[in-house]
Design brief:
Number of helices: 3
CATH topology: Alpha-Beta Plaits
Oligomer: single chain
Number of strands: 4
Strand content: 25-35%
Order of helices and strands: EHEEHHE
Number of domains: 1
CATH architecture: 2-Layer Sandwich
Helix content: 25-40%
Radius of gyration: 14 Å
Amino acid sequence: MPAYVVSEVRVLDEQAGDAYRKAAAASIARYGGRYLARGARPEAAEGDWPDERRIVIVEFPSMARVRQWYASPEYARALEIRRDALERRLLFIEGLPGTSGLMTA
Protein backbone atom coordinates (compact mmCIF):
# COMPACT_ATOMS: atom_id res chain seq x y z
CA MET A 1 0.00 0.00 0.00
CA PRO A 2 1.24 3.49 -0.70
CA ALA A 3 2.00 5.82 2.18
CA TYR A 4 2.14 9.58 2.30
CA VAL A 5 4.16 12.19 4.10
CA VAL A 6 2.19 15.39 4.61
CA SER A 7 4.01 18.42 5.89
CA GLU A 8 2.57 21.76 6.93
CA VAL A 9 5.43 24.23 6.68
CA ARG A 10 6.30 27.80 7.58
CA VAL A 11 9.62 28.90 6.09
CA LEU A 12 11.77 30.71 8.65
CA ASP A 13 14.82 31.30 6.43
CA GLU A 14 14.45 31.19 2.62
CA GLN A 15 18.12 30.44 1.92
CA ALA A 16 18.21 27.61 4.46
CA GLY A 17 14.84 26.47 3.13
CA ASP A 18 16.31 26.10 -0.36
CA ALA A 19 19.22 24.06 1.02
CA TYR A 20 16.78 21.85 2.95
CA ARG A 21 14.58 21.29 -0.13
CA LYS A 22 17.56 20.14 -2.20
CA ALA A 23 18.82 17.75 0.48
CA ALA A 24 15.32 16.42 1.21
CA ALA A 25 14.50 15.91 -2.49
CA ALA A 26 17.62 13.81 -3.03
CA SER A 27 16.83 11.62 -0.02
CA ILE A 28 13.18 11.23 -1.01
CA ALA A 29 14.10 10.08 -4.52
CA ARG A 30 16.65 7.61 -3.13
CA TYR A 31 13.93 5.94 -1.03
CA GLY A 32 11.36 5.73 -3.82
CA GLY A 33 9.30 8.79 -2.93
CA ARG A 34 7.78 11.30 -5.30
CA TYR A 35 6.29 14.72 -4.71
CA LEU A 36 2.56 15.14 -5.28
CA ALA A 37 2.59 18.74 -4.01
CA ARG A 38 5.61 20.81 -3.05
CA GLY A 39 5.46 24.18 -1.36
CA ALA A 40 1.82 24.60 -2.35
CA ARG A 41 -0.24 27.39 -0.84
CA PRO A 42 -3.63 25.77 -0.22
CA GLU A 43 -6.92 27.38 -1.05
CA ALA A 44 -9.08 27.03 2.05
CA ALA A 45 -12.58 26.00 0.99
CA GLU A 46 -13.64 25.85 4.66
CA GLY A 47 -11.98 27.26 7.73
CA ASP A 48 -8.92 29.47 7.87
CA TRP A 49 -5.45 28.83 6.48
CA PRO A 50 -2.56 31.16 7.37
CA ASP A 51 -0.99 32.75 4.28
CA GLU A 52 2.54 31.86 5.40
CA ARG A 53 1.79 28.11 5.64
CA ARG A 54 2.60 25.76 2.78
CA ILE A 55 1.85 22.09 2.14
CA VAL A 56 4.13 19.33 0.91
CA ILE A 57 2.78 15.86 0.02
CA VAL A 58 5.12 13.00 -0.84
CA GLU A 59 4.04 9.51 -1.88
CA PHE A 60 6.15 6.45 -1.00
CA PRO A 61 5.56 2.83 -2.02
CA SER A 62 4.85 1.78 1.59
CA MET A 63 4.84 2.93 5.21
CA ALA A 64 7.97 0.84 5.77
CA ARG A 65 9.72 2.87 3.08
CA VAL A 66 8.55 6.14 4.70
CA ARG A 67 10.09 5.05 7.99
CA GLN A 68 13.32 3.94 6.28
CA TRP A 69 13.59 7.32 4.57
CA TYR A 70 12.88 9.31 7.75
CA ALA A 71 15.50 7.34 9.73
CA SER A 72 18.09 7.39 6.91
CA PRO A 73 21.50 9.05 7.10
CA GLU A 74 20.65 10.93 3.89
CA TYR A 75 17.60 12.55 5.45
CA ALA A 76 19.43 13.14 8.75
CA ARG A 77 21.59 15.66 6.89
CA ALA A 78 18.47 17.44 5.63
CA LEU A 79 16.99 17.44 9.15
CA GLU A 80 20.03 19.31 10.46
CA ILE A 81 19.30 22.09 7.99
CA ARG A 82 15.55 21.98 8.66
CA ARG A 83 15.90 22.99 12.29
CA ASP A 84 16.86 26.53 11.28
CA ALA A 85 14.97 26.65 7.98
CA LEU A 86 11.42 25.56 8.75
CA GLU A 87 8.77 25.25 11.37
CA ARG A 88 6.53 22.33 10.50
CA ARG A 89 4.01 19.67 11.36
CA LEU A 90 4.87 16.29 9.78
CA LEU A 91 2.39 13.45 9.31
CA PHE A 92 2.78 9.89 8.00
CA ILE A 93 -0.43 8.50 6.48
CA GLU A 94 -1.04 5.00 5.17
CA GLY A 95 -2.93 4.93 1.88
CA LEU A 96 -5.55 2.51 0.66
CA PRO A 97 -4.75 -0.59 -1.42
CA GLY A 98 -4.62 0.08 -5.15
CA THR A 99 -4.60 3.88 -4.86
CA SER A 100 -0.99 4.70 -5.67
CA GLY A 101 -0.96 7.77 -7.89
CA LEU A 102 -4.76 7.86 -8.22
CA MET A 103 -6.99 10.60 -6.96
CA THR A 104 -10.48 9.34 -6.21
CA ALA A 105 -13.45 10.89 -4.45
